[in-house]
Design goal:
CATH topology of the largest domain: hpI Integrase, Chain A
Largest sheet: 3 strands, antiparallel
Order of helices and strands: HHHHHHHEEEHHHHH
Strand content: under 5%
Radius of gyration: 23 Å
Number of domains: 2
CATH architecture of the largest domain: Orthogonal Bundle
CATH superfamily of the largest domain: Intergrase catalytic core
Distance between the termini: 73 Å
Structural class: mainly alpha
Shape: globular
Length: about 290
Amino acid sequence: MFDALREYEVYLSGEKQASQNTQVSYMRDLRQFAGFLDAPLEKADTQIVSAYAGSLTARGKSTSTVMRSIASLKSFYGFMLDRGYVRENPVRSLAPARAERKAPQILSGQEVELLLQAPRCTDPKGFRDKAMLELLYATGLRVSELISLDVEDVNLSLRFIRCNAAGHERVIPIYQAAAQALSNYINKARKQMISLPEEQALFVNINGSRMSRQGFWKIIKHYQEKAQIQKQTTPHTLRHSFAMHLLENGADLRSLQEMLGHADISSTQVYANMIKNKLADVYQKAHPKARR
């Protein structure tokens, strides 16, 4: 029997080579829609998809959540159309209102220092946490990229790490303090934490296996509270802070784009626009003529 969802899932992981997070997100959205439809997915039309989007809004889902769900459906039905399973994409003309893009949360230099100083290197866990936080701020890695690192991806003598994401490899330099924190963790703590000698993961949990996204989220929330940082702090907050602080200190957009792993420079441009807006605000508040 034809299983559209299963065939699409195979397409995502194989032909499209989508990340694990993308696969999970798309398939979750599609299964929710399939439950709403209560009929073969090939039978959906624009009216049904529009009704589904409306039901999400009525249930209090944010505009960004609705947009993401519609994007998942549009990709799925594009696949179905290409394979000849449907005659048209019922989502093609559906365009929900765009969500207002919120400015990324940025930590100040002082807040970053408080966060990085929060772990105490008195046990293996402290060495690991210090190294993870330092490396995240040093490189601007996504949390999925951070936990995917293997020991062989680190070059301490030349002070850089190698990151492979979506089939694209990039090399990112790291500052001396981050390299030292990594060295301390690898040489003084990691061997005590791994469960098997052949473990390749750079960062491991208390069970000795690769650190999970959820595990690191808990770690960073713990140190946010310990450092008494009032801003909402997530792994992505350090990525945003890394980008802004580099631009504020003279980095060029193309180099930053490469380090962040952005496919499109428009994603990197967001940080440059934030700096422009910040300067304009300072000017308006500080220039004696601008205040009149």
